[in-house]
Structure formats: structure tokens, C-alpha cells
Write a structure and sequence with these properties.
single chain; mainly alpha; 4 helices; 0% strand
Length: 115
């Protein structure tokens, strides 16, 4: 039960990541709206994961790292899935970087709220 929000959010990310690509204006590599959306999505995912861990086993450095790693690997996997199985979707290293940044910030933010 503690991980249901994270699972539902992961399903939403999958749905949005495999649907029709949306074109957004480009400003700079990591500050364009698309990258900010990636960071926000993985901020929430990592936060939900950490919350689930917190409610299940508590918070420790290993748990903090696990939430970041799981969220970041999911983001990297989504890039591979997009590129491999969905036409007109692309693999972007900057998306993975934005996902990792969002994951780290999500864990830091929720950890701050938990304390």
C-alpha cells in the first residue's frame, strides 16, 4: 500500500513517455521546458518512492540511495524503451540527466519534510 502512489506515478510517466511526442520550444540544453518537466516528473517519482520506503522500513542512507537509483534507472529505461519501440521518440542523454537531477532533488526534498 505504501508504494501505490509511486507505482501509479510510474504508470503515468510510462503513458506520457510512450505517447505522441510533444514539441516544446528550445531555450538551452538543460533549461528547456521539456527538461524541467522531466526533472519534475522524476522529483515526484523519487519522492513517492522515498515516502513508501519511509512508511515501510524507515529512512537510512541506503534507502535514500535506493530511491534515487530506482527512479533514475526507471528514467534511463524509459529513454531506451522510447527509442527502441516507439517511432518518432528519441533517446536523449539530457533527458536522463534531467531525470537524475529530479530524482536527487525529490529525495532531498522529501527527506527534509520527513525530518
Amino acid at each position: 500500500m505504501n508504494f501505490i502512489p509511486a507505482l501509479l506515478w510510474a504508470v503515468l510517466i510510462f503513458t506520457l513517455s510512450t505517447g505522441q511526442a510533444v514539441t516544446v520550444p528550445r531555450f538551452s540544453n538543460l533549461l528547456e521546458p521539456d527538461k524541467l518537466a522531466h526533472a519534475a516528473a522524476y522529483f515526484v517519482l523519487a519522492g513517492f518512492l522515498l515516502w513508501g520506503f519511509h512508511r515501510t522500513v524507515g529512512v537510512s542512507p541506503v534507502v535514500l540511495a535506493a530511491a534515487i537509483v530506482i527512479s533514475s534507472l526507471y528514467g534511463a529505461s524509459m529513454e531506451v524503451i522510447q527509442y527502441t519501440f516507439f517511432p518518432n521518440r528519441y533517446f536523449e542523454v539530457n533527458d536522463i540527466i534531467a531525470n537524475i537531477i529530479g530524482s536527487i532533488l525529490g529525495v532531498l526534498g522529501i527527506n527534509f519534510l520527513i525530518k
